[in-house]
Amino acid sequence: MRSVDIIVPCYNEEEVLETFYQVTEGIVSSMAGYQFTYIFVDDGSRDSTLKKLLDLAAAHENVRYLSFSRNFGKEAAMFAGLSHSTGELVIIMDADLQHPPALIPKMMEGIEEGYDCAAAKRTTRVGERRIRSAFSNLFYHISNRMSDVKMPQDAVDFRIMTRQMVNSILELSEVERFSKGIFAWVGYETKWYPYENVERTLGTTKWSFKGLFKYAIDGITSFSISPLRLVSGVGFLISLVAFIYIIATLIQTLIFGIDVPGYVTTLCAVLFLGGIIELSIGILGEYIAHIYMEAKDRPIYIVKTSNLSNGQHSRNSDNTRKGSL
Length: 325
Ligand code: UDP
Ligand code: MG
Hints:
The protein is an alpha/beta fold.
């Protein structure tokens, strides 16, 4: 019997939890040789998600839950689930049934074949707003060009992983987590399972455009220092052009004397350089912000209530933390 933990981050998912459990349980309970335990992580929901989880836990003995003291974000919820999991295998999936549970038996075959990870990726983005798909394409394009960590486009956070891979992920103790990059960074053999995008039928998406934009910037700056190199490169190029321009102007002045004052040229140069400098400071700032957040070393999440034995458990009391205070 192999033990499998199913980690489900939930933020305001009162409408879907019961259905999610029924549908998923309907599929996994018929899989022989596995013992499934659910770890629902209530990410500080404002609706009755926690109440629903308490009901589920009371009715079914394979349901565990953790409830955060406030909304810490999906990344924190996934991390909390992973750090509380004890199963030999771990599944991460969304609560909204957009990650089809029907795929689990097929993905499990990949693990049985010897892969360390079986992960789902969307073949279509039907039902998603065009603009979101376009920005998503742009993000993967930029990110994969800039970073050594290649993130497969359209990969979603729906995967089965071995205990070994989960432990490796938990060793990355950064506060600002970007799981798509972390999954790729730790390596291991992953088998991909394409699936058709499923529209959310219950509840609403928790992502805003602003949230996704921040996520994309974090994704790039967490795994690549190429933007910093780019800034140096642009600086070098501008200096070179300026140098050539100075020489040319000097020669011109010596031969032809000074003609009209270069008012427009000066203005353009000042504005252009001003823009480049602002941009460069902004990019530097992004990295400094990362250092600042990591240096504060705050816990990634705070658990308020839980029915897990190792309940009150923050990153600072985890053994994932390296070094000493
Ligand atoms: N989620 C979360 N915390 C958040 C936002 C989302 O735990 O701050 C969960 C949410 O409950 C769902 C999953 O993350 O189970 C994916 O969210 P959603 O379906 O809103 O995102 P989308 O599918 O639109 O990318
Ligand atoms: Mg969704």
